[in-house]
Specification:
By secondary structure, the chain is an alpha/beta fold. Helix content is about 45%, strand content about 15%.
Amino acid sequence: MLDSTTPSIEQYKIDIDAAVAAIETVILGKSSQIRLAVCCLLARGHCLIEDLPGVGKTTLSQTIAQVFGLKFNRIQFTSDLLPADILGVSIFDPDQQSFNFHAGPVFSHFVLADEINRATPKTQSALLEAMEERQITVEGETHLLEEPFFVIGTQNPLDQSGTFPLPESQLDRFMMRIKLGYPDAEAERALLSGENPRNLMLRMQPSMSIQRFLDIQQVIDRIHSSGPILDYVQALVAATRDPGQFAYGISPRASLAVIRAGKTWALMNGRGHVEPADIQAVFSSVCEHRLIATEQHSKSVGSLIDRLLEQTAIP
């Protein structure tokens, strides 16, 4: 357990706040979404950003990687992309009379799977092992990925042409799903009258070292979640498994993600323990993409989750 009076907790908060503030100079008017994306990154999760083309999904991803000083690779998903284009391939070396493995772009700290739902299901599934186990297996040989390892997948709305829906197994690998949406009038005016955000991003210097980043991830492991907090999370999880509202509830993997994201949100707010407000702040982003409303419900999944949070008693 960590004490919120420990200087390191406050210093970690200051470091994270500085990184968030730097990102906000490029991505305008999206403070909540930026904090959720950073929370997901620090919590060792993966993030899915679903929205229309042109609202800043790719720019946000590149800026986060730049600010945290992470090695970045972007993979443009298309209908003809193959698993080997992501994972790598073994090529025969005639001089050594052996096959040598040539690593693909998944070998990076930060991988942007851009427009992930434009690729076929076979190619989408190439990321499953990497996202869950931080390793890949090619031709029977296992290769460990670098630490940290983070995937942001961007996704176009499914009603747009040339898209393949992500299967539930793939969706469940993403800790969070966020939506950027259009900027408000003030943010859009600042965008129109200011410098090109891409130029701002390219000039940006990392706000922390990779070792500092890894230290923060280790500190999150020691954030305390009390018995009543676990009771609260279990009550929320049980409510999602009510067959009257959702077709099926969230998985144990998602339950762990709620706790992990809650711990990270607590650290981002300068505390060494989780409070109910931390769980509430992350719950919808962790769970919404994993749930499907039953046919008798005309409300959206987001509305049902909001009602679930209102009706579940806080310890």
